[in-house]
Amino acid sequence: MKKNILNELGKRIVFFDGGMGTLLQERGLEAGELPENWNLKHPDIIRELHRDYLNAGADIILANTFGANELKFPDNLEEIVTKGVQNAKKAVEETGKDGYVALDVGPTGKLLKPLGTLDFEDAVSIFARTIKAGAAAGADLILIETMSDTYELKAAMLAAKENSDLPVMATVIFGENGKMLTGATPEAVTALLEGLGADAFGMNCGLGPKQMKPIFERLAKSASIPLIINPNAGLPRSENGKTVFDVDPAEFAEDMKIFAEEGAWLMGGCCGTTPAHIKALVEACKDAMPKPLTDKNLTLVSSYSHAVELGKMPMLIGERINPTGKSKFKQALRDRNMEYILEMGVKQSDAGAQILDVNVGLPEINEPELMKETVYQLQSILDAPLQIDTTNMEAMEQALRIYNGKPMINSVNGKQEIMTSRYLTIYEQVMNYCDAVGLGIFTVLGVYTAHGEGYDGIFFLVFLGMMTGIGGGLIRDILADTMPFILYKHIYAMAAFAGALVCVLLIHIHLYLALAAGTAVVIVIRVLATHYCWDLPRPLHEKDAHTKTKNLSENSNADDT
């Protein structure tokens, strides 16, 4: 049975290893040389460093895979990662220690959009390739570390959760101002990582133990899961062209004891720390016991920069990004006028709204697509947390995936049995297929019946087929007190039209061929339309008409003020 580091948490302080880059430089790593290549070129040196940390008392050693991603290693990434994990596992075996090997996942080296050029889903894919290789090589856990951007952090977390069943931990870099490079506060990071299901999280690099203390205190006040602290050996400085750190092992260990008292469950080092630092740390904290976790009972929503706590005082939620009773906003949605939508967000934020509601639901638009675009655009110019307001599960899922933070959710059935049901998605898929089959069968039966009664004419037969096909669904939706599907998914009626037409064209050639072909056309169009969110384009003359009535709408609709 594969050992699980999570079984060790809470029983004692768990120790990470320390720096790798500085030690490799001492052994001949040249400036600009990729350290991960040493997994292949000098595996003996890599294993030696791992053994030194294990013998110093480290429980978790990081595979030499920090910079291993397809941007740096497009041709041999899997080989680099596999060898890195294997070297670490071999070192554990050679020492006879009961150590754990973490796949070390660092930043890609590129900024994500809108600050940089890397697309969010591309980042997820980049991380996924590394994680698949590391998991296959036998890593015991994943540590996502040295992250300075919450959006890249989320991409890495999603990749880890979607491509492995390993425990996932994460550490980020805070500056002395208590913020990440892209502005996130400790509370925002807490909300994000707890929401994404991290098994433990904390901070590393950038600062020494003394500088990390006030930031760690904020993490401890907000976090309800195990915390990690992996500082540098003080603040770096340049000396004779070399980067040096001034905190020696004894001082490092003394400074670190306070973190065990304040709630750290996992402790180690980063840049400038050596096996001597880890040995001193382990010795200083050998008798320390992890502080029991407490549920902080904080209801947090966050953007990329900050978190908002609900429950202590009233929160102002801007509701203007919502088409209900707003004709101008409805038209902006139809025209995909993102400038107008963003303007509504900016005005509300400037007026003091602490959270912005986002609702783009109109019957005639592709809600999942527009919701995704709206959320992405809003979060690129505003730092207020968003409230995703939709009953469309696909729109909700897409918005949540690309949202940079932890949003509020509105208008979704929150019954426990529905929220936790593992069969909900399967049920929805099965029902969709059944609906498609039913639409196809009833459509061709309508054509068949009319033709059997002696009716003729392509238009009339197609019309009867369509009415027969969509009529049942129309009655069903009315009885269920829901908006009829045909009113907001034009492709539904279009599928019936296409199937009926094929059936009519073939019915004089071969009856059963006509029935089968017509049914098949309806089913294929409906299934593909659902999968790809197809909808009919709006006619150009419709846009022209709206343009002509623009002034009238502006003057006559009091709800748009």
Supply the CATH class of the largest domain.
Alpha Beta
Mean pLDDT over the residues = 89
CATH topology of the largest domain: TIM Barrel
* Net shape: elongated
Uncertain runs are 538-561
CATH superfamily of the largest domain: Homocysteine-binding-like domain
Number of domains: 3
For the largest beta sheet, what order do the strands appear in spatially? 1-10-7-6-5-4-3-2
Largest sheet: 8 strands, parallel
Q: Kindly, what is the distance between the CA atoms of the first and last residues, rounded to a whole number of angstroms?
A: 65 Å
Sheet/helix structural class: alpha/beta
Proportion of beta-strand residues: 5-15%
Spatial extent as radius of gyration: 29 Å
The percent of residues in helical segments reads: 40-55%
Q: Tell me the CATH architecture of the largest domain.
A: Alpha-Beta Barrel
Number of helices: 22
Using DSSP, what is the number of strands? Answer: 16
Description:
- There is one protein chain.
- With 561 residues, the chain is α/β, with parallel strands linked by helices.
- It folds into three domains: 5-299, TIM Barrel (Alpha-Beta Barrel), CATH 3.20.20.330; 314-412, Alpha-Beta Barrel (TIM Barrel), CATH 3.20.20.20; 424-532, no CATH class.
- It is built from 22 helices and 16 strands.
- The chain has an eight-stranded parallel sheet. A four-stranded parallel sheet has the order 13-14-15-16, covered by helices on one side. Strands 8-9 form a two-stranded antiparallel ribbon.
- A hairpin with a 4-residue loop joins strand 11 and strand 12 (307-310).
- Helix 5 (120-137) packs across helix 6, helix 16 (424-452) packs antiparallel against helix 20 (511-532) and helix 17 packs antiparallel against helix 19 (490-507).
- Mean pLDDT is 89; it is low at 538-561.
